[in-house]
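Morning F.,

Quick status update on the modeling queue. The single chain you submitted on Monday has been processed. Sequence for confirmation:
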Amino acid sequence: MCRPSRTESSWPKPNTIIESKNEKYPVGKYVVGEFGWRTHTVASETPGSFFNFPPRVLRGYGDLPKSLGLGILGMPGNTAYFGFLRICKPVEGNTVVVSGAAGCVGSTVGQIAKIMKCKVVGITGSDIKGRRLISEFNFDAYVNYKSPNFQHELTEATPDKVDCYFDNVGGEVSSAVLNRMNKFGRVAICGAISTYNNVPGKASEVQTPVKIAHVRMEGFSVTRWRNQWDEGIQQNMEWIRQGNLKYAECISDGFENTAKAFIDLFGAGDRNFGKVVVKV
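Structure tokens below.
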């Protein structure tokens, strides 16, 4: 079940704090943390082992669904906010290309780029997803990387070449984009999902075009901005309330569907648009 932006009234109430000995975590509040899959959790203020954050109380949501704390108002949203703005450093009028554009991070990056008054081209593996990026998320254009004419269509979609590239996929798709970078272009390397399930293969050489165009490429993990975490969440929340930032969620109902929801992330279907959430 994929849902676009919605209000809290349409979302089933998740568990809240039912007992607390810590005044920072009042009874009745919603919390997001690294708790694992369970119906009840006894937790402390100790940071989790993966992102090294303590449990966080969700504040200021109003009628926004609390599930956004796992998506655009959580780690994925901050990945888009900090990774794009701090590394790509967009300037009004820039052409921005986002791969993995139909995911939570990619769709958020593209919308932030539009807020910064850039031209935005999304790369995705489905024409249905691409049309949604334009009609619902304000992208200027999309390119389907599965098209046999992908490189030609990428060239047509970026007549002024590319100033900023937010890379979620790696592989040949990224090689094609890197060969279209303008001088002093900026590239944020967020992920390389095209290689996660495959034996590493060869990709076209990119060192020469990167060198000639003086392109700056930088990889990152969003935890480097852990001390500024609330900045990204609050700004994204403000943009949502202003109507400048939209979100989509694909919700799987039931713990027994967890494996399928995860596998769908790497699939070729049109279902996994936006943030994938499992409701238990």
